[in-house]
Design a protein that fits this description.
heterodimer, A: about 425 residues, alpha/beta, seven-stranded mixed sheet, globular, B: about 170 residues, alpha+beta, five-stranded mixed sheet, 4 helices, DNA_methylase_N6_adenine_CS (chain A), transferase (chain A), acetylation (chain A), tRNA-binding (chain A)
């Protein structure tokens, strides 16, 4: 019994960042490489030490080639709450699993080019202000591989040629690609592509990428720059150039100027993943094209090649369109990964958009302010899409709970307006 | 715009539905863009391609009298001073944009051959047609309504206006 428990057990040392996003990332990656998430550990919560069973070292190594949430992985040889427990746990580790020439550690020590690296990890808990004298847990294992956290620095938005006001932080863009189970030779699509930040992460993992955006200037790389001290965008500022910066230009398929609420793709399933960050109406406006009748008086028409008519695009309509589009164009088993802005005081799980063809895989919160947050929603297509019209009436009821968020912009700023009003009142007194 | 993308695009003018595919391509400027050959990716794309539409598009690009082809400029290695979409004159005599003698557009096979996944010659032809032909300037026309969607700097603009919008 004890023997079988200690076979193929690994210790993951996780980074203490984006805590809620870590488990879905690891689970998605394990399933991508033919493993399955199995663990005896009860909860993961905030701990950086995760013990899990992985069928083979190959799968463990593949996992580490993708994860930005895990720092390192060790083949776990023993652990305990005290050195004595650790020692007896080590004694139970099957001798034949330890590389023979190291029994009991008889091989030569070579600090410069070691064949194997062993580590002891001590867990002193999570409170930096209250560090115990003795560690809560001690782990011993053979180091296998490190994760991809260095990508966060090498792909940093600070160094990127072409950015926008809301370009995604590099770490999160890789997490999104991992939640989306992006793999080599996939086609990944972003319907709100902006400056293409999310496409870069997918291209790094070997997928071919394309995107659309309603904003002509952004797609063409024209207009005002988003960097401080820079007025206009330069010639090397466009999505293709961003991919070229990282040597990923061969993965660039195309970008188009298009309205995501009126997609111009033919019927069929050709996207392996749709990974996107739709506008929330705060720092980028939500827009769609519309007919003359729908415009209230006073809204101007934009020049010819740009958006002919801009209507406010209700957030609930936008997600309705997005899910329907994903359900229709994703391959079976393909994933949709997107951010859902929520007004925290009113949020309930029922608000997460739903579709009969898509199964909810994960829902991870990132706080934006005291009363707003955004949730990274991952869904997987599990059922073939039958007919466009069939879903319209079904879905409208399901999106009603979210419609309160259509005034997300007002609610986001409500904290600010209240404070300003209060300050003005105080200064008047 | 690559021919692979063109193969997936359809007109969404109101009332047109599935008759909006394929968009009729008219190219006035085309660039041949070397892209690293990846047989696995090309093989994955073959089942997704609407063959008749691809043949038609490749034909228009090849036979259009005003089509101009130019090799990829900059080599894609950090030549950041080149403006994307500008008429780069790499390898061409100044002021002479003239017709390129050949588009190097290989004959597109009439249909996928059996065992195409392992046929490198076939896959290389398809790779060239689907991924290396880049339409820089031109139009896409809805076959049903006649509405034109412009392509500029390699980017199609699919935005509709006013009454054209599908409800």
């Amino acid at each position: 019994m004890a023997l079988s428990c200690s076979l193929n057990r690994y210790l993951l040392l996780m980074a203490q960042e984006h805590l809620e996003f870590r488990l879905p990332e690891i689970k998605s990656l394990l399933s991508l490489f033919g493993g399955q998430f199995t663990s005896n550990q009860e909860t993961y919560g905030k701990s950086p030490f995760w013990i899990l069973s992985i069928p083979s070292e190959d799968i463990a190594r593949n996992l580490m080639k993708r994860t930005v949430c895990a720092k390192s992985i060790f083949e776990l040889w023993g652990h305990g709450k005290s050195p004595e427990e650790l020692y007896s746990s080590l004694k139970n580790y099957p001798a034949e699993k330890m590389a023979l020439e190291f029994l009991p550690f008889e091989g030569k020590v070579n600090l410069k080019k070691p064949q194997h690296i062993f580590s002891i990890l001590e867990d002193y808990g999570l409170d930096p202000n209250c560090i115990p004298e003795n560690p809560h847990n001690i782990y011993f294992g053979r180091w296998i591989a490190d994760g991809q956290r260095e990508l966060i620095e090498s792909y940093s938005v600070k160094k990127r040629h072409f950015i926008g006001n809301t370009s995604m932080d590099a770490g999160l863009s890789f997490i999104m690609a991992n939640h989306g189970k992006v793999k080599e030779n996939d086609i990944v699509f972003d319907p709100f592509v902006g400056t293409g930040g999310l496409l870069i992460a997918s291209a790094h993992f070997g997928a071919y990428v394309c995107g659309t955006d309603i904003d002509y200037n952004t797609v063409h790389g024209l207009g005002k720059a988003s960097r401080k001290n820079q007025k206009w965008r330069g010639p090397d500022e466009n999505i293709r150039a961003n991919l070229r910066q990282y040597g990923l230009e061969k993965y660039y398929l195309d970008v188009l100027v298009s309205d995501a609420s009126k997609p111009s793709w033919r019927k069929g399933t050709y996207f392996d993943a749709i990974i996107t960050d739709p506008p929330y109406g705060i720092r980028e406006s939500t827009r769609r094209t519309g007919s003359q009748k729908e415009i209230p008086k006073g809204i101007e028409k934009c020049p010819e090649s740009h958006v002919p008519v801009s209507l406010s695009y209700h957030l609930s309509d936008m997600f309705f369109d997005l899910l329907n589009f994903a359900a229709e164009t994703l391959v079976l088993g393909g994933r949709l990964v997107y951010w859902l802005p929520v007004y925290t005081p009113e949020y309930t799980e029922e608000m997460v958009p739903w579709h009969p063809c898509l199964q909810l895989i994960s829902n991870c919160e990132q706080k934006l302010s005291s009363h707003t947050s955004r949730r990274l929603i991952t869904m997987e297509k599990v059922k073939t899409f039958e007919n466009r019209d069939q879903y319209s009436h079904l879905l409208s009821d399901h999106f009603l709970p979210y419609q309160g968020h259509n005034s997300f912009r007002e609610k986001y700023f409500s904290g600010v307006t209240k404070r300003i009003a209060k300050e003005e009142k105080c200064s008047q007194e | 715009m690559k021919l692979l993308t063109h193969n997936l695009l359809s007109s969404h003018v109101r009332g047109v539905g599935p008759r909006g595919f394929p968009l009729r391509l008219q190219a006035t400027e085309v660039r041949i863009n070397p892209v690293e050959f990846n047989p696995e990716f090309v093989a994955r794309m073959i089942p997704k391609v609407e063959w008749a539409a691809l043949l038609e598009a490749a034909d228009t690009v090849r036979t259009l009298p005003h089509a101009r082809a130019r090799p990829e400029w900059g080599g894609g290695r950090g030549r950041s001073h080149r403006r994307p979409g500008s008429l780069a004159r790499v390898g061409m005599p100044r002021g002479d944009l003239g017709l390129c003698p050949q588009l190097h557009l290989v004959e597109v096979p009439k249909e996928p051959i059996e065992g195409y996944e392992h046929d490198e010659k076939f896959l290389r032809k398809m790779h060239h047609v689907l991924l290396e032909v880049d339409v820089l300037e031109g139009t896409l026309q809805c076959p049903e309504s006649g509405r034109l969607f412009p392509i500029s700097r390699g980017i199609p603009n699919m935005l509709l206006s006013d009454e054209e919008t599908e409800t």
